[in-house]
Amino acid sequence: MNTLHVAFFSGDITRSGGTENVSIMIANALADRQDPDIRISFISLFEEKSEPFFPIDPRIGRFTVYPTVTHGIQHYFDTVRRLKRIVKDQHVDILVDIDGILDIYSLPLKRSTGVKVISWEHFNYHQNPGVPYRKLTRRWAARKADAIVTLTEADKKLYEDNAHPKCPVIAIPNPMQQITPEPVYDADSRTIVSSGRLTYQKGFDMLVDVAAQVLPKHPDWRWLVLGEGEDRPMLEEKIAKAGLGKQLILKGRVDNMADYYRKAAMFVMTSRFEGLPMVLLEAKAYKLPIVSFDCETGPAEIVIDGVNGDLVKTGDIADMAERVSLLINDGERRVRYSAHADEGMDCFDRASIIAQWNRLLKGDE
């Protein structure tokens, strides 16, 4: 049997976002199986950093469509041409588009190269962050892709009910990390942690509004935001106006996220929308109590409300502030939530998720 070359296609695999995190996690695990029948690579439109934020297994090849940062639909035909050359030269059999918007470049290659295309949805069917023509690519994928992978059963149903796909739609969740050494919850911590790219989707502007209601009443607490992004200037101005500069701190891109999770009292997520948020799975892996907006897909499949976290109606600043304050004031509640962090996590078992991907790539799914 010939080796099956699977290339995960990314905008920029060196970024520090949840999409890059889970994609590298899956690719590394597939490479670690040392299956001689599968070769794994990454193809990025470009790589802004010389080294990826999340470590990539050295057995995994890396290719770029452009040698430098290149944005814009005006480069569409050149991008398709360049991608086609990589696919043909590297004998790529399957392209896994780790952002559905990349389908616009990969789907045109099916006829001329014979490559199979798997569209991996990291948001949800109703969300079109940053790109108005994402709706069109989803409908195109529904007609032309070889498979669509969603992160939740709820999103799978949204695709089937709205796009009427001609290809299989398969729900494969993100895996929960295995942490060593075993995390020990710090019941004495006075630190709240949030993480993610500083973008509209992640709702850090609302996080500042929540913090403005919470932190002044608790001067011995601080709130750290881990991540970088285009909203930083706006957030810095908003934090300064709220007088929170000494308590609400934008830490930027950090290399030692595990250290922050291990020393945190709780994790808070204020996203407007998600697919299946890796940050919540990471927080649970470190046994952190969670307070999260209950956006359309994701949080409700990770957090059991009132058992290991609190779910809040998306955008309800007052209720979010109240739930965060409740955990600050009730140490026993925090410890109880931490003790139940693993409940409901069986479906996020890493080994079973990697097995699902392996079956899909080999055509057994």
From TrEMBL:
Keywords: Glycosyltransferase, Transferase. Residues 17-175 form the Glycosyltransferase subfamily 4-like N-terminal domain. SUPFAM superfamilies: UDP-Glycosyltransferase/glycogen phosphorylase (SSF53756). GO terms for molecular function: glycosyltransferase activity. Pfam families: Glyco_transf_4, Glycos_transf_1. Residues 186-341 form the Glycosyl transferase family domain. This is Glycosyltransferase. It comes from Bifidobacterium aerophilum.
